[in-house]
Specification:
Pfam families: LCCL. This is LCCL domain-containing protein. By secondary structure, this protein is α+β, with helices and mostly antiparallel strands. It has 4 domains: 171 residues, Calycin beta-barrel core domain (Lipocalin, Beta Barrel), CATH 2.40.128; 243 residues, no CATH class; 104 residues, LCCL-like domain (Ferric Hydroxamate Uptake Protein, Chain A, domain 1), CATH 2.170.130.20; 74 residues, Immunoglobulins (Immunoglobulin-like, Sandwich). It contains 18 helices and 30 strands. The chain is elongated and about 125 Å long. The two termini are 60 Å apart.
Length: 722
């Protein structure tokens, strides 16, 4: 494991594990030092860990205290070095009596090329640490000299802490060996702190490592993993698969579709009389909003749940209201747990009153509508509570236990995070349902595993391993952003930006401000990460690939008829390679980006990076040509009874073959005529008229509503589509 980019020889505090595959063989040196075969064998097959504390005393002398341990916590040599170049006798339990001295020096004062070459430029600048140890021959009965230099070195294009050892044996044997170490940061919860005159030590991580050691056995993880999968299956069944599938509603479910979606006179959405049925709603439907403006009578509503009516004594809602949001407002279900209820359809209800309750506000509609609904007082459905919050608590606890108690190998821990996060989204927090579509979830899961493996190879394997001995710190660094991103629908989705288009940014209050703040934060983080990468020497490599990727994206963004869409799972894929360094910020970034990948793919699948304008438009206006009313405030004659009035409009243009007319938000006419009789309308109610061209039965944009008030006042439509 490489050291962090800003780690240098001025302070080598940390934990280091000797990398045997990169280091030279020390067995012959140990033999010449008088170390017996049994101990040498233990050292050969064990793992050597150095715990280094580097500091200055009150006299500004540098001290380097080193505790060595072998696999299993077997204590090794303890070294207390002062960089003063003064000889210090020491009784070492492994090497016997020795005399040592240490200093910081420039490379040019040393006369052996092996000791002075291969170091990084900052090591030459700050000076090498030289350790000179020789046997105390009269006491130890052996004669040898170990001359070492310590510093930073690029090994296989990675910045490493290394030692160059020049050993001279009893018969003047000369052995030169390079020792390469993997870096492990000193945990924040397992180190000494000095504040003014106060000195204290925190040993939380060490205590946890010691207390949980018996629980890290592989067989226990296998048993608990099987138990978790079985438990999750029962949890998911209780959440989604006991209630009849036909009773499920989505947060945007309605009895009536927008504009002409229900066809002429609503024939595609009927019947409307006295229908009664039970339903179940998921949790948190109050946050599901209209992404485009919707015209209701003479009002437009956007970026809030669509609820019309509910203010009368019977809590009557217009049929195109979001049923679940209306049920929350009416108190039939709760937002946090969802729930079940019953609903009764009512036909031709007039005058829907606005209503505010439980954090939701509806709008009114002052005329008649073909279908409305009221909620019943009971339901026959059971198992109605949405269990996503208990599932979240369960999975958060499981992931924390994985980090701090079970502590599997980093790669196993990584795959646990991938599986837990993906299936939490697919089954609980943002399923493609309800109920969850398991076929789609399993279909996306295999490619997610391939992408996740790339995440491991380019980033996680370099960082997650560095925090293996700091389980609590690792849990906080990884799990906090991980769960924030996995629950993207509750966190980042609250930011008033859904799509980075100029039209969306202009429509939503606070969108531009939010975008500016996000860009500033991202710029700061990217600049800092560039600084980190530059110190490792990898900046040209990463910069080259990112420039190439940017040029590729630029080319595909220019393809005709398509628009570039950087979905959040794509953003995670783009950014993850730049986080493959053993720093705390990189650990935080990796948790965040992994969560974004899992949320995006589990909730929406692998949406394309290129989409057509129609795919992005959703139910917004096409931008098509609009017809013109010939009936205007200037031509409407109030003296003529309503039963004898006609609404007229201008003839067809060359690109269209018919008209569609909405009266009070219901399609009442489709054809080529240039007028419509108003004799069927109630003269005591206001009426709203919207007109669109059609082509082969498909309507273009509708005009804004023209309004006819009961007193005979005609209001011309505003400019633009509705």
């Amino acid at each position: 494991m490489a050291v962090p980019p800003d780690f240098n020889i001025l302070d080598i505090s940390g934990k280091f594990i000797m990398n045997k595959s990169l280091s030279g063989d020390t067995d012959e040196i140990l033999r010449l030092q008088g170390v017996g075969w049994i101990k040498r064998t233990a050292i050969r097959y064990g793992t050597l860990t150095l715990a280094i504390k580097h500091y200055k005393d009150e006299d500004t002398f540098e001290h380097i205290d080193i505790d060595q341990t072998l696999t299993g916590g077997i204590p090794g040599t303890t070294e207390l070095r002062t960089l003063s170049w003064k000889e210090r006798p020491h009784e070492d339990h492994l090497f016997g009596a020795v005399i040592g001295k240490s200093r910081r020096c420039k490379a040019d004062v040393l006369d052996d090329e092996f000791l002075t070459t291969g170091w990084t430029s900052d090591t030459y600048e700050h000076g090498l640490v030289q350790s000179y140890v020789e046997s105390d021959t009269p006491k130890s009965g052996t004669t040898w000299i170990a001359n070492q230099t310590w510093g930073m070195e690029d090994v296989n294009n990675e910045r490493r802490y290394t030692r160059h050892v020049y050993f001279t044996g009893p018969a003047r044997e000369e052995i030169r060996v390079k020792l390469v170490y993997d870096y492990t940061p000193i945990p924040l919860l397992d180190r000494s702190y000095n504040f003014w005159h106060f000195h204290f030590t925190i040993g939380i991580e060490s205590a946890i490592l010691k207390a949980t050691q018996p629980l890290t056995a592989a067989w226990l993880l296998v048993v608990l993993a099987a138990a978790y999968i079985i438990g999750l299956a029962f949890f998911s069944r209780a959440q989604s698969f006991i209630t009849p599938p036909s009773s499920y509603l989505g947060c945007t479910s309605t009895f009536w579709l927008a504009k002409d979606g229900c066809g002429l006179d609503g024939q595609l959405c009927g019947p409307f009389d006295n229908e009664l049925f039970d339903f179940r709603c998921p949790a948190r439907c109050d946050g599901v909003i209209l992404q485009n403006p919707r015209t209701i009578g003479n009002e437009q509503i956007a970026f809030k749940p669509l609820i019309v009516g509910g203010g009368d004594d019977n809590r009557t809602y217009r049929g195109d209201s979001f049923i679940c949001a209306a049920a929350i407002q009416a108190g039939v279900i709760t937002n946090s747990k969802g729930g079940c209820g019953s609903v009764e359809l009512v036909s031709n209800f007039s005058n829907f009153f606005p209503y505010t309750s439980r954090g939701l506000t509806s709008i009114g509609f002052p005329t008649i509508f073909p279908v409305s609904f009221r909620f019943g007082s009971s339901t026959s459905l059971t198992h109605c509570d949405d269990l996503r919050d208990p599932a979240l608590a369960f999975n958060v606890i499981i992931t924390f236990i994985l980090f701090t108690v079970l502590r599997p190998r980093p790669i196993i821990l990584f795959w646990c995070l991938v599986c837990i996060g993906y299936w939490h989204v697919a089954l609980f927090s943002q399923p493609q349902g309800p109920p969850p579509k398991l076929g789609i979830a399993f279909g996306n899961f295999l490619p997610v595993l391939f992408v996740a493996y790339a995440f491991w190879r380019v980033a996680f394997r370099f960082t997650l391993s560095a925090f293996y001995n700091a389980p609590v710190e690792a849990a906080l660094l990884y799990l906090t952003p991980y769960w924030v991103a996995v629950l993207n629908n509750l966190t980042f989705d609250k930011i008033p930006i859904s799509r980075l288009t100029s039209s969306d940014l202009a429509k939503r209050n606070g969108a531009i401000t939010a975008l500016v703040v996000i860009l500033i934060i991202l710029t700061i983080l990217v600049i800092n990460q560039i600084r980190v990468v530059r110190k490792t020497g990898w900046l040209p490599y990463y910069l080259g690939w990112y420039v190439l990727g940017g040029l590729t994206v630029m080319v595909i963004a220019l393809l005709p008829g398509l628009q570039l869409r950087i979905h959040h799972y794509i953003l995670a894929i783009i950014l993850i390679p730049g986080t493959g360094f053993p720093t705390r910020l990189c650990a935080f970034y990796q948790g965040l980006l992994l969560g974004l990948l899992l949320n995006g793919t589990a909730a929406f699948g692998f949406d394309s990076i290129l989409q057509t304008a129609d795919e992005l438009r959703l139910d917004a206006a096409f931008g098509s040509e609009l017809p013109t009313f010939l009936t205007t405030s200037a031509t409407y004659n109030q003296s003529i009874p309503l039963s004898d009035q006609f609404l007229s409009w201008a003839p067809l243009t060359d690109d269209w073959d018919g008209f569609a007319l909405l009266v009070d938000d219901v399609e009442r006419y489709v054809g080529t005529a240039l007028n419509y009789s108003l004799k069927a309308l109630d003269a005591t109610l206001p009426h709203f008229f919207r007109l669109a061209f059609t082509l082969s039965g498909v309507a273009g944009d509708f005009t804004m509503p023209a309004i006819l008030w009961p007193n005979g006042t005609w209001v011309d439509p505003s400019f633009g589509p509705s």
